[in-house]
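thread: overnight batch results

M.L. [08:02]
morning all. the overnight job finished for the chain we discussed friday. pasting input first so we're all looking at the same thing
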Amino acid sequence: RRVTEAEVARLALAQPAAAVTVQWGGSQVFKVGEKMFAVLGLGGGLSIKVSEIAFAALTESGRARPAPYLARAGWVRFDDLDDLDPEETEAWMAQAHALVSARLTRKVRRELGLESG
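M.L. [08:03]
and the structure it wrote out:
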């Protein structure tokens, strides 16, 4: 089964308090609390925040490459959505959201309903 742009967008927006903006010439930028966790369509493909371990594994295996401008912050880029596995993509989207959410302030997480108290 092929991963489509619509499916990537659905998976991203299924994350708690996720939103999308269109910027950089038509790319869909998925955010939580104004911080990006995934970008779809920046020249085609998907750029996403990953853990240090996933970054090393994906880039060393050649499955993804360091994302332009964002690699320093632990982002990878999948150039072709056809190469993605749907279940794996869902897991990466959840991880990207969790990594970015964890860096939000407690106040912002509370305002977004990501943390109680």
